[in-house]
Amino acid sequence: MTGAAPSPQFKRRAQAALADAELQRALRIVEVNFIARRSEAVERLPEFEALRDAARDIKNHTLTHLDLYLEEYERRVTEQGGQVHYAVTAEDARQIILDICRRLRANIATKGKTMVGEEIGLNEFLANFAVTPVETDLGEYIVQLRHEQPSHIIAPAVHLTKAQIAADFRRAHRHLPPERDLAEPEALLSEARAVLREKFLAADIGITGANFLVAETGTAIIVTNEGNGDLTQTLPKAHIVLASIEKLVPTLEDAAQLLRVLARSATGQEMAVYTTLATGPRRADDPDGPAEYHVVILDNGRSAMLGSPLRDMLRCIRCGACLNHCPVYHAVGGHAYGSVYPGPMGAVLTPSLIGIDKAAELPNASTFCGRCEDVCPVRIPLPRLMRFWREREFEQHLSPAGVRAGLRTWAFFAKRPRLYGLATGIAAPVLALIGRWRGRFRWLPLAGGWTRHRDFPSPQGATFQARWKRR
Amino acid sequence: MSARDAIFRSIRNSLGVSGHEAPRIKAVADRLSEHPSGVLPRRGQLPAKERVALFMSMVEAAAGSVAPVDAIADVPAAVGAFLRQHDLPLAVRCGADAVLAAAPWAHEAALQVTTGPSDGRQLAAVSRAFAGVAETGTVVLTSGADNPTTLNFLPDNHIVVIEAKHIAGDYETVFARLRRTYGAGRLPRAVNLITGPSRSADIEQTLILGAHGPRRLHVIVVGKPGSRAGTRRPAAPR
Hints:
Chain A is an alpha/beta fold. Chain A is 52% helix and 11% strand. In chain A, strand 5 and strand 6 (219-224) form a beta hairpin. The two termini of chain A are 28 Å apart. In chain B, strand 2, helix 5 and strand 3 (112-115) form a beta-alpha-beta unit. Chains A and B meet through helix 2, helix 3, helix 4, strand 1 and helix 8 of A and helix 1, helix 2, helix 6, helix 7 and strand 9 of B.
């Protein structure tokens, strides 16, 4: 099943991505750096595999008791003077946030990195109502300047080269001398730091996501390296935490187990620079911190996933390891997926959020090599869940006619083992004979989609079944 | 039906529960009150002296710097030495922390010490950590008038004073102390676990220090591990 059934949309984007030399150069860095750093971090911690089991079990336990932990969490937040808001849909969440902004007459809202914020399209919405959202994570800031979506859940601008970013800064920061030197990443970072420092100090509202919500204490935990999330939540009048229901964990100890696998899986760090536990608004004697503390809890289809085979996906802690290890992601980058969540985790999550009829291409954008599951810190069976969606797609007759015909042909032979053996017994030696000189094919009839970007290996002679029989 | 009710109903439908099942309620109550620890890496489970040594090497591995001193009385000189080493003005801001306030700042005559939160105009701040974690070289700071949170993020240089006796092997030991200090189920507004100075790798995966938070994190470790030197009375100012 070569390149089974991607819709024209994914196919078109993927082809454009493969032809984009700058993107390909940027993507090579993902493949080399992230994989090596994770594996070094894992080697340094002998307990890593045991921690993955613990992380999986904590998430499973929390999900099966989610209603009760959510009640406890809400009780604790309220007790500390914070306010919990519930949003069934993305639209509800946007409206709740806008209402808070309006009540506080907010002009500028700084934002820490939040994938849920991307999911609900918060920036565009706020901007329509005269609240200027300012992304403060460097990568998010860059993609905001470009009016793009992040291409990676933890490295939003990973698809860009420094020259592209320098051009964006020249375009956006017109108050700075045009002849300034922006050749090196250090210069770009200093410039962004100075520009954003003004925004931090001017912001009326700070919006962050949450990596974890702790039921025991009513705490939102964010994990960052830059410190932008902390300035976002500490300086303005109000802090809004935007988080989906599955971020809950029972206790601080449970959070610590998950933190031990999060940074190592994501960036290969022992621990991210800033792990911040935020609980409620400024206290009576506090000289700093927000006067108001709001939590917007978003469902957006997740409570329904809880009762389906997709429940496993709700363990996801958004580390990005599955993207970093995915050969399809390495080849085409995050934007080809056309959804907020790219890579294997997105291929499972996106159809749950927007419907398989609108996202059928995504679970097909996988070779099923299984590396994503091998590295997932909470052991989500990603290939199995992608297969679940492929089956729904086939059942609902969403697959393209060519694929359905191909599958039917294959099934015809597969259900007739003798005929299958005969057909492959003829095809394999013939192909081996034709391909024996190079050992591979640069072109095959009916397989142009495959051979346009890579060679097809020629068979070695006998079929697997024939060789198995001879053992 | 409110959004809250709709979400709870949908969760309970999916789980096939009512929310009133006694065994589930007990399982949750037990976990919250017992907060089991799970897997603790052996790395940090060390005697005091080795634990502090691991803490210091992990801070350095995270691109922080470390200065061990014998007593709180030595902190002003260590702060001055750090500022001079980096050609910084001899001025720091700190909170109302009593231990820091008791240090003999007058011994560093040229050093200007102001108190209060940061408004972004200070180049260096001094905070006193609630605890440290040897496993990853992490300092744990708690918000409040003693150590305002803005000091951790706005100044370019963050100097953190930590007493050796407060350096734990793992996060869990620190959580237990937080519960003893603030009460079960309660935390100060912000608990900051900080591991090295601010950084970003968002441009071509090139790691650069000093993204939005401090470019430098300097940790002054006070006292010999296992001794009570960390609480020794400061030398009387002349």
